[in-house]
Design a protein that fits this description.
Length: about 90
Amino acid sequence: MRVDKFLQLSRLVKRRNAANALCSRGNVLLNNHPAKAGKTVNVGDRITIISDRLPTEDTQELTYEILEVPTGNVSKTRATTLYRLID
């Protein structure tokens, strides 16, 4: 599954276009390497999302471990079981 699609299905990012934009800006790391939107994710991979909403604020990095890669749509309650927050 693609990084941008996983971010959308897991509800870490609201829309796939937003996930794609984060990847394009270099704000998504997959196993500590910048990830393009089309990069494939696997169970055990770590995704880091770097938030840079305002230039005056400190950047915030959140790292998640992928616990499951879904096939198809995911319910809102099941979405939180796809990953585990690490940092």
